[in-house]
Amino acid sequence: MNHACFHNLRRCTRWQSLQYFLGMLPFAACLAGCDHAPEFNIVGSYFPAWLLCMAAGTALSGLSYLGLKRLGVDREIVASIVVYPSLALFYACALWLLLFR
């Protein structure tokens, strides 16, 4: 390729311009990004939807803990430090899939 062509695009032939365009096309595709991220306007501030799903997942995990404690099953859970955050993540991802996908 003729690199001098890129400094002055008016002098480029049609083939050189096409090569330049096709060479830059993959980079432009990487810069496209997302159309619109789901977000909520709460008291004038925009919060991403994943943040609300995470808060709801944490709350549901807390409710699950209270329900399991009331049933007496919480004593059977050996690694509760792993189980309840995993449960919160499960609830958050499930809410995200149900509400936004």
What does this structure look like?
The mean pLDDT is 80. This protein has 101 residues and is mostly helical. The longest helix has 23 residues, at 49-71. Helix 3 (49-71) packs across helix 4 (80-100). A hairpin with a 2-residue loop joins strand 1 and strand 2 (45-48). It is elongated. It folds into 2 domains: 1-33, no CATH class; 39-100, no CATH class. The protein has 4 helices and 2 strands. 64% of the residues lie in helices and 8% in strands. The protein has a two-stranded antiparallel sheet with strand order 1-2.
Secondary structure elements and pairings:
Layout: H1 4-7, H2 14-30, E1 39-42, E2 45-48, H3 49-71, H4 80-100
Antiparallel strand pairs: 1-2
Helix pairs in contact: 3-4
